[in-house]
Amino acid sequence: MKLVSLVGLVYWALSSSVVLARQSSCSGSSSSIDDGPFPADLNGSNFTYPWPVKVYRFTSQNQELEMAFMDLPPRIGRPSCPPTASPKTAVLLHGKNFCGPTWWETATNLSAVGYRVIVPDQVGFCKSSKPDRYQFSLQQLALNTRGLLSALSIDPASTNVTVIGHSMGGMLAARFTLMYPETVSELAMVDPIGLEDWKALGVPYIAIDSSYVTEHASNYSSIRGYEQSTYYVGSWSPTYDVWVNMLVNIYQGSKGVQYAWNQALIVDMVLTQPVVYEFGLLKPHGGRTLLVVGDKDTTAIGKQWSPPAVQAKLGHYDVLGKQAAAVIPNCTLVEFPGLGHAPQIQDAKGFHAALLGWLSSN
Ligand SMILES: *[C@@H]1O[C@H](CO)[C@@H](O)[C@H](O)[C@H]1NC(C)=O
Ligand SMILES: *[C@@H]1O[C@H](CO)[C@@H](O)[C@H](O)[C@H]1NC(C)=O
Ligand SMILES: *[C@@H]1O[C@H](CO)[C@@H](O)[C@H](O)[C@H]1NC(C)=O
Ligand SMILES: *[C@@H]1O[C@H](CO)[C@@H](O)[C@H](O)[C@H]1NC(C)=O
Ligand SMILES: *[C@@H]1O[C@H](CO)[C@@H](O)[C@H](O)[C@H]1NC(C)=O
Ligand SMILES: CC(=O)N[C@H]1CO[C@H](CO)[C@@H](O)[C@@H]1O
Question: How far apart are CA 45 and CA 22, in angstroms?
């Protein structure tokens, strides 16, 4: 009896170590950086990016995936200040309705003051893979992003990494910092979603299949209508069109169906995976967090399909910013009066002055 169970135990230990060895050699050999060049239409987006697109190939959930990203050296475009190995790196995380390129002004500003800037597109977005089947979680996207940094040999022991996220990217930046506090030196969130738990406030669950129908029907007028009211508080400038068309291009592109499906899974992800309860645990190792909000931002996932009494409770960033800043350790709150969900676009100068001022104030 004892011998049998001992033999069983030894067998189990041997077979599981074989499995572990296989997994580690498998993931070790299958992650790589491809510097391209790539065709204009990459994974269903033919939007022209401001800098060369590279691809991080890796294995995730038993499939080969690619994350597209841009990697700006410090002091790009300043020939008198040649790029040098920089101990500072910034990682810029896009929101659900944007892609890496929307950060271009932030990226050039950070590069100008000496940051290497990594700008990924998450799996399911933009020029990255759009898998037919994927268990989307904020943790999985954070893990993918951490894998990209490792593949680029960005070692947090010798490099300070500043993580900056907007909207869904802000929620992801919070999750990333909770998972990898030793990697994140400083955290900055710009109108992050997830400052409240919408489901706890009464937002009804919606089937992924229903979200898919809405996503698949997206077009210029539906995207612009949404962004005009929540991002820009009713105003519009022709310079905002480029970001709408960048999305229309994907919805109508060669991977449009997979993109709409991935985006429906993303809606489910942010609705069901709150971070707000963990804000008190945010401890980037540099000790500081910046929270930027437009006080007229009204973004709230599920507001569109909630009853009016629930709608009235959601998305009050004038209140939510202060609430979050009171809970997050060492948090600096910068409010942009009269602005909505995208202060980095609507008041780019004011935003970059606030961001760079905070970064240099340590
Ligand atoms: C990281 O930033 C801290 C200040 O927050 C500084 O003391 C430290 O030297 C920096 N580390 C590197 C590797 O630059
Ligand atoms: C755009 O989408 C909206 C909502 O899905 C729809 O009502 C409208 O007819 C569409 N417009 C065009 C020009 O297709
Ligand atoms: C991208 O695709 C759109 C159609 O979706 C087309 O109008 C446009 O010319 C393409 N642009 C490039 C750079 O290929
Ligand atoms: C707050 O941030 C500063 C750096 O700006 C750091 O020196 C200090 O230790 C932090 N305090 C806490 C409680 O983390
Ligand atoms: C920084 O951003 C502002 C707009 O916000 C832009 O006008 C300026 O050119 C940028 N600076 C650099 C060095 O890229
Ligand atoms: C899923 C998918 O289509 N992935 C493609 C993304 O783009 C890279 C680079 O061209 C391709 O190798 C992948 O097949």
Answer: 35
Q: Are 120 and 68 in contact (CB under 8 A)?
A: yes
d(CA 292, CA 290): 6
CA distance 282 to 342: 23
Residues 6+ apart with CB under 8 A from 72: 51, 107, 108, 110, 111, 116, 117, 119
126 lines ligand 6 (CB under 6 A): no
Q: What's the whole-model pTM score? A: 0.90
- Looking only at the bridges linking them, the beta strands covering 63-72 and 54-60 are antiparallel
User: Prior bond to 156 cis, omega within 30?
Assistant: no
Query: Which ligand is closest in space to the CA of residue 348?
Result: 5
Which tokens belong to 193?
């979603």
* Probe target for ligand 1 pocket from 154, 185, 283, with the most ligand atoms within 8 Å of CB: 185
For 114-173, the pLDDT digits (tens) are: 999 999 999 999 999 999 999 999 999 999 999 999 999 999 888 999 999 999 999 999
- Per the CB < 8 A criterion, the answer to whether 101 and 72 are in contact is no
Query: Which helix (H) or strand (E) element contains residue 12?
Result: helix 2-30
Q: What share of the chain is helix, strand, coil (3-state, %, to 5)?
A: 45, 15, 40
Strand, coil or helix: what is 342? coil
CA nearest ligand 4 atom 12, residue: 287
DSSP SS3 for 224: helix
Ligand 3 atom closest to residue 252's alpha carbon, by position in its atom list: 5
Domain architecture of the chain: domains with CATH: 29-360 (3.40.50.1820)
